[in-house]
Amino acid sequence: MDVPFDLNSYVRVLKLASTPSWEEFSRVALIAGAGVALVGLLGFVIFLLMSFVPGAGL
């Protein structure tokens, strides 16, 4: 494990990285939020099914 080589490669990646524009950030945040909402909705639907179907839950 060559530590100076590893540090140089990390610095090179950080130099290539840039902050996203507001449009790109908002689009990624919107897609991530939609994914979280979809997973939450799916969990809620499963909860409702487990609550109303006899013998499906504990």
From TrEMBL:
Q: Drop me one GO molecular function for this one.
A: protein transmembrane transporter activity
Q: Which residues cross the membrane?
A: 28-53
Gene3D superfamilies found in the cross-reference section: Preprotein translocase SecE subunit
Topology within the bilayer: Single-pass membrane protein
Any one GO CC term of this protein is: plasma membrane
The subcellular localization recorded is: Cell membrane; Endomembrane system
Q: Name one GO biological process term.
A: protein secretion
Q: Which InterPro entries match?
A: Prot_translocase_SecE_dom_sf, Translocase_Sec61-g, Translocase_SecE/Sec61-g
- Major place of localization? membrane
UniProt entry keywords in alphabetical sequence: Cell membrane, Membrane, Protein transport, Translocation, Transmembrane, Transmembrane helix, Transport
Keyword Amino-acid biosynthesis: yes or no? no
> What does the UniProt function comment say about this protein?
Essential subunit of the Sec protein translocation channel SecYEG. Clamps together the 2 halves of SecY. May contact the channel plug during translocation.
Q: Record's family? A: Belongs to the SecE/SEC61-gamma family.
What is the protein's quaternary organization?
Answer: Component of the Sec protein translocase complex. Heterotrimer consisting of SecY (alpha), SecG (beta) and SecE (gamma) subunits. The heterotrimers can form oligomers, although 1 heterotrimer is thought to be able to translocate proteins. Interacts with the ribosome. May interact with SecDF, and other proteins may be involved.
Q: Which HAMAP family match?
A: SecE
UniProt-recorded name of the protein: Protein translocase subunit SecE
Organism, scientific name = Halosegnis rubeus
